[in-house]
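SUBJECT: A protein chain and its fold
Encoding: whole-number codes for local backbone shapes
RECORD BEGINS BELOW THIS LINE
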Amino acid sequence: MLRPSKSVLAIWILGLAIVLSAGINAYMIRVDAGGDALWNSREAYVFIGMDTRGLHVKWIGYPLLVAGQVLGKIEPPDDDRGSMVVIHATPAGAEQHVLELADRRPGSGPSMITRMEGRIWANFPALGGLCWWAGDHFERATPDELQRFGGIEHFAPGYIESGWSKRIVGDGGGFDMALGGDTTVSLNDGGLRGPISIEIQKKGQAPTKVFSLDSRSGLVSRGRYVQTFQGLK
């Protein structure tokens, strides 16, 4: 029985690889995240907006796509979604809410988040402008509130209600938010492309992770890609 030579076998393997790479997709996800953290001695709020974009391309074209990204070429996403994670932490624990942002236009999501008159307020153009956080969703301001505040013009970036602190999330570094009862909320921030995580540390106990955004961009499995953008179409 004749056996193929090593060179012939190599050619067959290379050909099979080319055929497969021309028919199978590579899946990529990129997540840009940022937001604001507000806290006092009793509680902390972290608002993290996430822009998730997905690309899929045949494996044979993947090297060209990567080369284009290195050279600064921006490919339009095949899929994208906007969301905001809101974490409320107290010495008793933490709760988390995820808001889907249906309006994908730039600047349509919640921003200018600040604490004023006992509430957390934001500019949320997709919801009509001035809104306040109602525990699990944003509620639009009433006409009386709009008139009293005079819109959002005085929501200066550095403004915060007395007794509260505020930091930006997503610009790199990290910081601690000290609450009462020997409780500290630690936010680890890897910047625009790095991971973001939030832990609650109680004195004498191991820290508890309550939020983690580990993978900001890169290749993913088809299953994860489908799960990420499921229900958008």
Notes: Residues 12-21 have pLDDT under 50 and may be disordered. Helices lie at 6-23, 62-70, 143-149, 222-228. The longest strand covers residues 25-39. Residues 6-23 form the longest helix (18 residues).
